[in-house]
Amino acid sequence: MRSMRVHELSEDISVLRMDEVTLPPPGPGEVRLRLKACSVNFPDILMVQGKYQFKPELPFAPGMEGAGIVAEVGPGVTSLKVGDEVVAGLRIGGFAEEAIASAEACRPIPRGMDFVHAAAYPAAYLTAYVALVIRGNLRAGETLLVHGSTGGVGMAAVDIGKLWGATVIATSASDEKLKVVKARGADHVLNVTTGFREEVKALTGGRGADVVYDPVGGDVFDESVRCIAWNGRLLVIGFTSGRIPNISVNMPLIKGFSVIGVRAGEYGRRDPEAGRRNIEAVDRLAAEGKIVPYVCATFPLDRAVDAMRLLQERKAVGKVVITMD
User: Fold this and answer.
1) pLDDT 10s per residue in the chain (325 long)?
2) CA 90, CA 108: separation in Å to the nearest integer?
3) Nearest one of 7, 3, 1, 4 to 57, comparing CA atoms
4) What is the dihedral of CA 126, 127, 129, 131, to 10 degrees?
5) What class, spelled out in words, does domain 2-121+294-323 have in CATH?
6) What is the CB-side half-sphere exposure of residue 157 using CA atoms within 13 A?
7) Homologous superfamily in CATH for domain 124-266
8) Domain segments of the chain: what residues?
9) Rounded distance, CA 189 to CA 208, Å?
10) For the sheet containing 167-172, what is the strand order?
11) What is the Cα–Cα distance from 73 to 120, expressed in whole angstroms?
């Protein structure tokens, strides 16, 4: 089968190349999947560059989450059978026609959802759910400030925020992209090119945002500290700006807010039972049609680098998906 793999770490993501690979048979508790789609996530780029906290052995295929059909089951697997259509958490290996996955990391595709959208929802919406509901304790009536709102994890946060009854202020550096977020339900949209703290204060009657969802970091984090409400929660999701910010601890002391780190996948690995509950909650929302990822583009497997560049160059809106057919 074909697989787009990394043989050397590089800032230049074009080092990916197409290989012919023969997978080993699935081991105990594993299945072999015939992949139909795999979403592209920012950590895929960081892994190619050697900058992500998880550093797989070379060579490897990026691809954290995919959707496909069970082609073979390993010893001891009773929860799945050949022919089942599933969505799978992979960590790596999704940029390929086939992948080996843990049976526990596979679950049925939500009814009514195609392979492309099934591959696009799990990581983004799990991140948003764990961040806002579990770690951020978002409550109805609160104001939620979502940075990077035009990306996959940002759009997911807008959706979860609205479902939980928050007033959502969505930010981005692109007016055109913000039109999409506004159409999907954000109450207010702000272009952060010239700053945002005064606008946030004005929209909240001077209080500031109760919860800040920040996958961007850098200057966006710094300014968020200036417009967060008393007893607010500043959720650290990532650093797509490229700069990991610092904070003087007198700021959360004086303003009474919390800075909370969010790693949804690690949360589940450290507390598997809580992780299962979180995944079940997100899957339930998907099955009920309450969350539907916005997919702006699809690319065939041999154009995986082009798909990644769309994210790297900040041209994507929502999710980008690689398809195998």
Assistant:
1) 999 999 999 999 999 999 999 999 999 999 999 999 999 998 899 999 998 888 999 999 999 999 999 999 999 999 999 999 999 999 899 999 999 999 999 999 998 899 999 999 999 999 999 999 999 999 999 999 999 999 999 999 999 999 999 999 999 999 999 999 999 999 999 999 989 999 999 999 999 999 999 999 999 999 999 999 999 999 999 888 888 999 999 999 999 999 999 998 888 889 999 999 999 999 999 999 999 999 999 999 999 999 999 999 989 999 999 999 8
2) 15
3) 7
4) 160
5) alpha beta
6) 33
7) NAD(P)-binding Rossmann-like Domain (3.40.50.720)
8) 2-121+294-323, 124-266
9) 15
10) 188-191, 167-172, 143-146, 209-214, 228-236, 258-261
11) 24
CA triple 215-291-296, angle to 5 deg: 65
| Residue 218 host element (H or E) | helix 218-225
Question: Residue 175 has which token pair?
Answer: 């007016």
**184-188-191-197 Cα dihedral, nearest 10 degrees:** -140
Crossing angle of helices 152-163/122-129, nearest 10°? 50
How many CA within 13 A on the CB side of residue 27? 2
Residue type, 87: V
